Amino acid sequence: MGYLLWIFGFMGSHRFYYGRQITGVIWFFTLGLFFIGWIIDLLLIPGMSRSADSRFKSGPVDYDLAWILLTFLGWAGVHRMYMGKWITGVIYLCTGGLFLLGVLWDYLTLNEQLSDVNRGY
């Protein structure tokens, strides 16, 4: 999954996926540190994956699918609808992911949101 998100890594999606919010924000605003850090990350993904596996637990709402939906359709709120958050999903759909600021917020918090949703099951 990390390699798939790395394709859009210049937006930091793979860094957010692995729970590295600070560097994810830096990648988001600098296009992966002007694409240089993005290329270096290709070598760092295995270590980031091992670290994230120990922190985040799976459940009925799949992390990988939610991250794919956020990365490719975040502006439309499809990831929020998938998690059962229909109202905010429709709001995202009508506002372009709250003008992409909501998408950035979800990049920052999606792992925690998924943990909370999966705990409820």
Automatic annotation (TrEMBL):
Localization: Membrane
GO cellular component, one term: membrane
One Pfam family hit: TM2
Keyword Acyltransferase: no
Transmembrane intervals: 21-45, 65-83, 90-108
Keyword vocabulary terms for this entry: Membrane, Transmembrane, Transmembrane helix
Membrane topology according to the record: Multi-pass membrane protein
Name the UniProt record assigns to this protein: TM2 domain-containing protein
Domain (TM2): residue spans on this chain: 2-42, 62-107
